[in-house]
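Q: Hi! First time asking for a complex rather than a single chain. Here are the components, and I think there are four in total. Is that enough to go on?
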Amino acid sequence: MFSLALNFDRFGPQKGLWGNRFNPIHTMLATGTDAVAGNQDEGGLRYADDMVSLPLQCGTQWDALGHIFYDDKMWNGYDARLVDSDGAQKNGIEKVKDKMVGRGVLLDVARQFGVDHFEDGTAITNEDLDVTAQAQGVEIRQGDFVIVRTGHMGHCLREDEWGGYAGGEAPGLAFETADWIHAKRIAAICTDTWGCEVRPNETDQASQPWHWVVIPMIGISMGEIFFLEELADDCAADGVFEFFFCAPPLPVTKAVGSPLNPIAVK
Amino acid sequence: MFSLALNFDRFGPQKGLWGNRFNPIHTMLATGTDAVAGNQDEGGLRYADDMVSLPLQCGTQWDALGHIFYDDKMWNGYDARLVDSDGAQKNGIEKVKDKMVGRGVLLDVARQFGVDHFEDGTAITNEDLDVTAQAQGVEIRQGDFVIVRTGHMGHCLREDEWGGYAGGEAPGLAFETADWIHAKRIAAICTDTWGCEVRPNETDQASQPWHWVVIPMIGISMGEIFFLEELADDCAADGVFEFFFCAPPLPVTKAVGSPLNPIAVK
Amino acid sequence: MFSLALNFDRFGPQKGLWGNRFNPIHTMLATGTDAVAGNQDEGGLRYADDMVSLPLQCGTQWDALGHIFYDDKMWNGYDARLVDSDGAQKNGIEKVKDKMVGRGVLLDVARQFGVDHFEDGTAITNEDLDVTAQAQGVEIRQGDFVIVRTGHMGHCLREDEWGGYAGGEAPGLAFETADWIHAKRIAAICTDTWGCEVRPNETDQASQPWHWVVIPMIGISMGEIFFLEELADDCAADGVFEFFFCAPPLPVTKAVGSPLNPIAVK
Amino acid sequence: MFSLALNFDRFGPQKGLWGNRFNPIHTMLATGTDAVAGNQDEGGLRYADDMVSLPLQCGTQWDALGHIFYDDKMWNGYDARLVDSDGAQKNGIEKVKDKMVGRGVLLDVARQFGVDHFEDGTAITNEDLDVTAQAQGVEIRQGDFVIVRTGHMGHCLREDEWGGYAGGEAPGLAFETADWIHAKRIAAICTDTWGCEVRPNETDQASQPWHWVVIPMIGISMGEIFFLEELADDCAADGVFEFFFCAPPLPVTKAVGSPLNPIAVK
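A: Yes, that's all I need. Here is the structure of the assembled complex.
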């Protein structure tokens, strides 16, 4: 059993490089220190309670289909203006609350290419994905959850420094992999990086061009900031790169993303 | 595939009856209306983004082992004062991030007793649990996730009125079921009510006495506010009351509870 | 010295009747119970610390000029789309951070008309305002902060029940008072109600029509949810209805409103 | 008229150096882009609305008397454990909601000593305060709000870099000034630094020792992170270092601090 989630706390990767995202803010509504001080005795129960405030995509996450627009449209041709201050009236994450479960496949591209982690800016190509799958002896099937390891997160964790992990440069999927994803008819694509695709992007005519295609055109979710080090070690050890994958989103109504704790069962 | 989670939104069950808990507050950090208005064009990407603030136990949830104290101790004998404003230094929910997966068993006690839902104050006894398991033809084994249906949530949803669901009166487990739980050596106990145990409690000498025993003494988590209507209908239809159960908590570091989306796979 | 603010806490008037507004959520980041438990001793300082989350217009407040639009424009002809998820690029509350100070005048219309409070739906007219000013012996001058008392808040506080105070029916200013406000060239208009203008509105062709005029066309701020009971008693006692008024907004950058603590010095 | 507040936004001084404090998070509940997109037309009103989450002491602030403890006591001998997860039952900021108004005096020590700003670690002594007051021709009287300028904030603003401003090293008041404050019987002491007192502190036997004395023993509030550059220039220009000072806290119930917008009227 492997959890593919980073813990959610104020030591997460957000450094203000992109958008308004911040690390989770966890605060207590009741504590054991209150309880032992006797401050709860009138209620007859000694307990702790807590809350959290967090951007839905600050840590290990699913992008919902309402997250990215192409021109003025989102997936399925819906008007992008259906996502307003009240949330996503279409393509919200709660629509897939019982859908993110299936066969998972790890493509440990970094290990296949003999590196601890790929350097920032390294684009992983269709051929890289195919070579890795073949070398690992694992077949990609329709409906799979494909999880690509670049080593980026593991490197940051080992260095104990996030640096530009969230919104800066990173290794990642080449733009052409959108074709591979479409052809393979997979259920979702996940990586151990902040945003799946290589950064700097391969063009300067658009920001995150692969996102423009994969979410609003192909219509699949992407999983980002997945913690893959333990799973990858296990797969390398036993040579089995497929597993049962259960990654239920937190069904925040009308949300365009979701924090989660993906589970791989081998 | 069944999701056992309520959606998380401002129409949830919290009405301020207990503690400081409130319903989730979902707000947008970027929207499709901004995108179509051209306000994001400088960045070269059209997207929506969002955040949420929520008590960790406002909806479908796990209690962590640091949630309830007996006198000045929590599970495993740790000092309750290790849960302070900085969170739970021991028994935080993140410690079980890869543990909440296993065999699930539904005990649909309400259906077994021929009621739409039990009335508030109805205590479900050990015998009720045993009778239900036997009638359903399902065995409780060590390590199971046992899920008890009272019909309470379904009734509220059908009435479209939460009323006292969160913190008011409710049907639920009798105090004696703590013995049953301990004897069966189950992994966790879950219900479709706010707080598992019957309310009003069976004594007025303590508030939530069953909690005092189950969490700090027996050391198991309880799942609360589970949505069981669809799963229960399916189990009644095919006569199979066991399933694969995958209920990963959101690993908020040092948290004493977690919102979640439990999945039952039949 | 009179504070015209309600305290900000979870017992405030918001009941979910209008928009997404909620009462303030005040949580602690460090406590005296932690301190006395010794949990802070490593840091060498015993302290408490806290945070709050609140809609900027949940309690005693200023509306900023970016709060209301007429068609697709806001005050000064700016495009309403300049207020997006990133806040108000024009007409934000921080622009008036040093402007909300001057001569204050109380028009205690309820007292003048011999009522504890006006009934919901009572429209206060231009003549009512003039009659009250004359009876109280106070002149309205250019640049004044005019504060109108309906008794609505006092009634709710005495009944200990907010009911429909926030977003429901209320006494308030007639639509025609927009003319009075414009002619008098006052600095701002404030009341002890949720939204200044009478509700139900005097038309069903628009919601809050007086707001459409006063903010985007006349360009003045309105103060709402002002606590006037103590000030009004004092003014009635000494017959002096004018005072020094100091009501600095909290300058949240690009905000369209601000909670505040207005001070009247007599 | 001078506002002595920094704007509250995500570009504030908090960098995670001390405690769990973070910069304000301002999010929108409704926007002009939604309005112009027609998404609000059903409601009949075009508007924007917003919320903020912030530590009460993240920016320009008052410390409440419940903020600092000496041993297990706070000001007036109250047990520190009266400040728990539910807030400060005694010495909360709301108790002084109508008290923070009076005569203000600026002691521009940096200017008096001919420096743009004092270096980190510079301790301002009683003699420094007296010399400055005398040179400026201003008398300190009982009940005054005394505001000391070190130049620290102005330096950060000019450099456009907060660096260690919040929780790092800083110039500030020497420990002995607690005596000066007590003897002068002033109403409050304010500075343009994060924490009033010099950092590194003059001892390593306690953290923030001056706080231990000034809040729980002398019982006065301190104002911190005050923006003094414009006021100081004006005082230097006209030689008048006294003014009407109106600094109402935001009365968050049971809070141990408050963000605010202090106003100086000359």
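A: The mean pLDDT of chain C is 97. Let me know if you'd like any chain examined more closely.
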